[in-house]
Write a structure and sequence with these properties.
By secondary structure, the chain is an all-alpha fold. 70% of the residues lie in helices and 0% in strands. The protein contains seven helices and no strands. It is globular and about 35 Å long.
Length: 132
């Protein structure tokens, strides 16, 4: 399949996010382009400007990497301190419900790229909650 980005190249913003994902321990090729574009849109909506800075991309990349790699994979790439910090961010996002982190977690959930262990651990569901 021919990719649109192959013809025109990747945007500066996507390249920044790719770099941030690598820095967070996640190969950017494991993240669908649609997820990257949606994450950049969420950054822009959160007030990070038309072209989010590398630091803003780094904040988003960390939570994306944590959600996609899971706690064990993230810890292997980033260490226990970073993992505890991201666990706290994820829990805070779930408690608040409407923050940039919460929207990024929801993005990974609906895109089907969130790690199964996190879905189980935090009782996350796409769509309506299962009936009990």
């Amino acid at each position: 399949m021919f990719e649109f980005s192959a013809l025109f190249g990747r945007s500066r913003e996507v390249r920044r996010l790719d770099d941030a994902l690598r820095a967070a321990g996640l190969h950017p090729g494991l993240v669908p382009d649609a997820v990257k574009i949606a994450a950049l849109k969420l950054l822009k909506e959160a007030g990070q400007g038309v072209s989010p800075a590398p630091s803003a991309c780094g904040v988003a990349a960390e939570i994306l990497a944590y959600c996609i790699l899971g706690d064990r994979g993230f810890q292997e790439a980033n260490g226990p301190g970073a993992t505890r910090r991201l666990e706290g961010r994820l829990q805070a996002a779930l408690d608040v419900g409407d923050s940039l982190d919460a929207r990024l977690v929801l993005l990974t959930l609906h895109a089907g790229v969130i790690h199964h262990a996190l879905m189980t651990r935090y009782d996350l569901h796409a769509g309506d909650a299962p009936e009990k």
